[in-house]
TrEMBL record, chain A:
SUPFAM superfamilies: 2Fe-2S ferredoxin-like (SSF54292), CO dehydrogenase ISP C-domain like (SSF47741). Residues 44-120 form the 2Fe-2S ferredoxin-type domain. PANTHER family: ALDEHYDE OXIDOREDUCTASE IRON-SULFUR-BINDING SUBUNIT PAOA, OXIDOREDUCTASE, IRON-SULPHUR BINDING SUBUNIT-RELATED-RELATED. CDD domains: fer2. InterPro entries: 2Fe-2S-bd, 2Fe-2S-bd_dom_sf, 2Fe-2S_ferredoxin-like_sf, 2Fe-2S_ferredoxin-type, 2Fe2S_fd_BS, Aldehyde_Oxdr_Iron-Sulfur, Beta-grasp_dom_sf, TAT_signal. One of its GO terms (molecular function) is carboxylate reductase activity. Keywords: Iron, Metal-binding, Oxidoreductase. Its EC number is 1.2.99.6. Gene3D superfamilies: 3.10.20.30, [2Fe-2S]-binding domain (1.10.150.120). The lineage of its organism: Bacteria, Pseudomonadati, Pseudomonadota, Alphaproteobacteria, Sphingomonadales. This is Aldehyde dehydrogenase iron-sulfur subunit PaoA. Pfam families: Fer2, Fer2_2.
UniProtKB/TrEMBL annotation, chain B:
This is Xanthine dehydrogenase family protein subunit M. Signal peptide: none annotated. Keywords: FAD, Flavoprotein. SUPFAM superfamilies: CO dehydrogenase flavoprotein C-terminal domain-like, FAD-binding/transporter-associated domain-like. Residues 1-223 form the FAD-binding PCMH-type domain. The keyword Flavoprotein applies.
Length: 211, 318
């Protein structure tokens, strides 16, 4: 056990002890409705499979999957942008599906398989989408890139699986990896450097079509 | 975010019972709306009941020839279902017109029905809002109201229901199936599910405390041409200014429901009976008694034009 774990456990001990003391001796703080005492922080054990590795951590119930990945598991490739599901920088794959990791609680993912940008490929062995982003210059500052790449990988999977989108002309036909389809499906990932056209070229390259 | 305790429920009736046993409890499924509001401390649940383990994630045919959609079926899976795409196209179209791919992968059928308003004064905890803090007033009235309601509003609230899926479900006459904490199951017609604000805008649905949505049923297919036309400030990933769900038959009769203009999906059956007279007459009937603000008066002609476009699409697709 390293020092950090040691201190984390002692701190939890203090919190639990502190909660009990408050309940006995002090006037509890009122909650938003001004009636009942505010609950104390609660932690829970959690096991998930992140990038192929089983990881067990202890988290405050309030911890988002994003914060668990970054702060507890030290996988800082996944980025925090808006923290409200609007920008897509925190996109990861859970059981193969892309989601905003900022809008889901870590404790809701007991046993789930999470893939982050670190799990898609490595600097020595890039995922084809990572290599295509490099080849087509699909970024400038790079902050949104992990989310863009996770989303792009999932988008091609969704098109292959026949999931319709807002621009699919015929609901009963299979969609294809056209520019319009890829653009529409990437609308949950914002790039304020404006690398959109190069991101589209990278995706088209991986899909084997011309952007 | 305020601290809360957390449990995973395994049976629907147990989840409902847990909700009444724990004052201040909320169900959580996809969590994309609830967690957003918890971060802003607009929602402050003391206990969360995770309902993802209830197994309500399948779409089954009903004895009446319709479909029963489990409460936990995701927006992505519902929009992609072959039966929905073939027989209830307006529903697939409405779902893919909303949110982003990431959000649709998490958002559930039940949770999407319960999505809360996007009124900027509801979101700003420094502002008066009768929905967030009953009795505090409505800062939206006389405020920035471009997105807000033009009909069915009250002196207490001019918020809109923001979703797309429910607008299509209203046109399809879906029904919401629930279980109460005592285990009793009931069915609420979608028309009665969402409420108008009146004096109690904080009460948004017909659900009783602890009552849990278990499914949404669709009646047998209507046939006809299905259109969902949405007008918004961006081409993708934005809430509707106005949306129209339409199911139009070969003889020109049909159904229309409108989103983005009221506290609930807006459908007026008397307006539909006048479809043969054209979009101007239908829109005028739909919007009889409308009270737009200066900011959102544009929605009144926009409803008529969006309706005209939807009817045009339906004619071209038929």
């Amino acid at each position: 056990m390293d020092d950090r774990e040691q201190s984390a456990i002692s701190r939890r001990g203090v919190l639990v002890g502190g909660a009990a003391t408050v309940a006995v001796t002090a006037t509890p703080a009122a909650d938003a409705q001004g009636v009942r005492p505010a609950p104390q922080p609660v932690t829970m054990p959690l096991t998930l499979e992140v990038n192929g590795k089983r990881r067990t951590i202890e988290v405050d119930t309030r911890t988002t999957l994003l914060d668990a990945l970054r702060e507890k598991l030290e996988l800082t490739g996944t980025k925090k942008g808006c923290d409200h599901g609007q920008c897509g920088a925190c996109t990861v794959l859970v059981d193969g599906k892309r989601i905003n990791s900022c809008l889901t609680l870590a404790v809701m993912h007991q046993g789930d398989k999470v893939t982050t940008i670190e799990g898609l490929g490595t600097p020595d062995k890039l995922h084809p989408m990572q290599a295509a982003f490099v080849r087509h210059d699909g970024y400038q500052c790079g902050y949104c890139t992990p989310g863009q790449i996770c989303s792009a990988v999932a988008v091609l999977g969704e098109i292959k699986a026949g999931v319709p989108s807002h621009v699919t002309a015929d609901l009963t036909a299979r969609p294809g990896p056209t520019n319009d389809e890829m653009r529409e499906r990437m609308s949950g990932n914002i790039c304020r450097c404006g690398a959109y056209s190069n991101i589209l070229e990278a995706m088209a390259d991986v899909a084997g079509v011309k952007a | 975010m305020r601290p809360f305790t957390y449990e995973r429920a395994t049976k629907p009736a147990d989840a409902a019972a847990a909700a009444v046993r724990n004052p201040g409890a909320k169900f959580i499924a996809g969590g994309t709306n609830l967690l957003d509001l918890m971060k802003l401390e607009i929602e402050v649940p003391r206990h969360l009941i995770d309902v993802n383990g209830l197994g309500l994630d399948t779409i089954q045919p009903t004895a009446e020839g319709g479909l029963r959609i489990g409460a936990l079926v995701t927006n992505t899976d519902l929009a992609a279902d072959q039966r929905v795409r073939r027989d209830y196209g307006v529903l697939s179209r409405a779902i893919v017109a909303g949110a982003s791919g990431q959000l649709r992968n998490k958002a559930t059928t039940a949770g999407n029905l319960l999505q809360r308003t996007r009124c900027p004064y509801f979101y700003d905890t420094n502002q008066a809002c009768n929905k967030r803090r009953p009795g505090s007033g409505c800062a939206a009235i006389g405020g920035y109201s471009r997105q807000l309601a033009v009909i069915g509003s009250s002196s207490a609230c001019i918020a809109t229901y923001p979703g797309d899926m429910a607008v299509a479900m209203r046109a399809l006459d879906a029904a919401v199936e629930t279980v109460a904490p005592n285990g009793a199951v009931r069915t609420i017609p979608i028309a009665d599910f969402h409420r108008l604000p009146g004096d109690t805008p904080h009460i948004e649905t017909a659900l009783a405390p602890g009552e849990l949505i278990i499914a949404v049923t669709l009646p047998r297919p209507l046939g006809g041409t299905h259109v969902y036309r949405k007008v918004r400030d961006r081409a993708s990933y934005a809430f509707a200014l106005v949306s129209v769900a339409a199911v139009i038959q070969r003889d020109g009769s049909g159904r229309v429901a409108v989103g983005g203009i009221a506290h609930k999906p807006w459908r007026v059956e008397a307006a539909e009976r006048r479809l043969a007279e054209g979009s101007k007459v239908v829109a005028a009937t739909l919007l009889a008694g409308a009270k737009p603000t200066q900011d959102n008066a544009f929605k009144v002609p926009l409803v008529e034009r969006t309706l005209a476009a939807a009817l045009h699409d339906a004619r071209n697709m038929a």
